[in-house]
Amino acid sequence: MPAFKIPLRQYVGLLRGYLSAQRSSIVWLSVLLAAGLVMQLVNPQLIRYFIDSAQGAASDRALWIAAALFIGVSLVQQGVAIAAAYISENVGWIATNKLRGDVAEHCLRLDMTFHKSHTTGAIIERVDGDINALANFFSNFIITLVSNLLLVVGIVILLFREGWLIGAGMSVFVVLAIWAIQYIRKFAIPHWGKLRQMSADFYGFLGEHLEGTEDTRANGASDFVMHKFHTLLRQWLPIRVRAFLGWAAMWITTLVVFTLGNAIAFALSAYLFKQGAISIGTVYMIFYYTELMAKPIEKIRTQMEDLQKADASIVRIRQLLDTKPAIRDGAGAPIPEGPLSVTFDGVSFSYESGDRPTLDRIDFRLEPGQSLGLLGRTGSGKTTLARLLLRFYDPQYGDISLGGVPIRNDKLTHLRKRVGLVTQNIEIFQGTVRDNLTFYDSAVTDERIGLVLAELGLEDWLRSLPHGLDTRLDSGGGGLSAGEAQLLAFARVFLTDPGLVILDEASSRLDPATEQRLEAAITKLLSDRTCIIIAHRLATVQRADRILILDNGQVAEYGNRQALADDPESRFSRILATGMEEVLA
Ligand code: ATP
Ligand code: MG
């Protein structure tokens, strides 16, 4: 037996966890397989009886009965095999679908650090490819293994009944055959793991670039992408070739071994027949059993192979499931209702530990209901600050509190309900307008959605939709203008009724009419809420009570908007005088 990469306990744990719900199916499967086993063992005996009777002077009637029995048993055996395959496929799919669900859910719960370091394609390969490799392992691994072992043992016992020589000879053969096949297997296996990894890399690459087709083409990076594509394919080929050569080597070994088995059986039977120890019917039966033996040994081999594939997959899935989200629910008091105060207390954060901090000792406080205009060059850390407020990342130093409660204390889902974020790029999901607004929360009534859309000045837009709230939107924002998408995002935030709203304003590409609608919507959205507006346009800053200017992750200026505007020395007044672009860009 080869050394397994993971302890047996883990296999047992996995099997028990995912199969316990299907106990009755598994019992049925065992019964069917046992029945099939008995029939396989009985049939050669019938043949022997038939041959020997035909040679002797038995009546036709006995021959007819033997023949009918043989055909009957064969047919029933096929039926049993089909039923067993049906049940085991079902068991396998139910178990792996559950596992798929668990792994997918786990991935969704993992934080940004994980998702930034794993491509979509690689995750898909885990959730789908690896779990597919486990399907057989779940559906019938142990049962098939056990029943085939029993079949081999049964055959050997029946052969012993015919004479110790034939029994001993075939036993030696079985041991040698299994050993030889195991031996060859060692050379083939490592390549299978590499093959899976390679395909994960490849699909990761493919997924990433299919997603970004527009950008790739617009920027003329197609050649580069194709080059990478060919490079990956070229790396893939030799690994594939080696893996399949390994497989072929095993296949050929198996063939050779079984031919040897037949030869041994013939030699021994010929010898015993010459001695007059066995009948011609028995010779045929021995031959039949040796032929039959190939099947379980082959089956055991493929099962072991599956186990090995499952092994690699289990290791990877375990690793994935063991990846704990770095950001976890707090156990303390929840963030209060209503507009929230915001406190940053010596907050420093960098994406990679050891890097220069992206945010450096940020201190400020907003009273409930106040609005903050956040300014700064591109890359100064504005979006990062917003991400910290939603705990997409936790800062390495300092504390952030909302409504006087440190955000680490609250549950993540509650925190994210209390803080609404409209990002620079708005995701539209494939689904209806309603789904996109409520995120599939059926508790939100259509009346409520209608009210919110009306408040945002979107009733005309809603009326213009062919099927109202049931109009389907394509993923990736298809069918919506940038302005409409943004208004939709506002409506989303409105529906959750947060106490703090963060607007990460997209560098504006809106027409004046939409912009006006947007202004009106923002005013609505912000009334009676605390808000942070990451502004790229001076117009949006005019509504802010306070201004914070970030420079290289540090607070360059913070204060009352009016006071800063009146102070000719302040950066903000310079921005007002010369325009945002001049000072910041
Ligand atoms: P913009 O005005 O262009 O939106 P910003 O002020 O929002 O810029 P941030 O997105 O906060 O800037 O980025 C601040 C810095 O952090 C940049 O140098 C950026 O390269 C880096 N950064 C942003 N996101 C990540 C990430 N996920 N991993 C590592 N570094 C990041
Ligand atoms: Mg940004």
UniProtKB/TrEMBL annotation:
One of its GO terms (molecular function) is ATP binding. SMART domains: AAA. Gene3D superfamilies: ABC transporter type 1, transmembrane domain, P-loop containing nucleotide triphosphate hydrolases. Residues 27-309 form the ABC transmembrane type-1 domain. It is a multi-pass membrane protein. Residues 342-577 form the ABC transporter domain. It is found in: Cell membrane. It holds the Pfam family ABC_membrane. Keywords: ATP-binding, Membrane, Nucleotide-binding, Transmembrane, Transmembrane helix. The keyword RNA-binding does not apply. Its main location: membrane. The chain crosses the membrane at residues 25-42, 62-87, 133-158, 164-184, 244-271. This is ABC transporter ATP-binding protein.
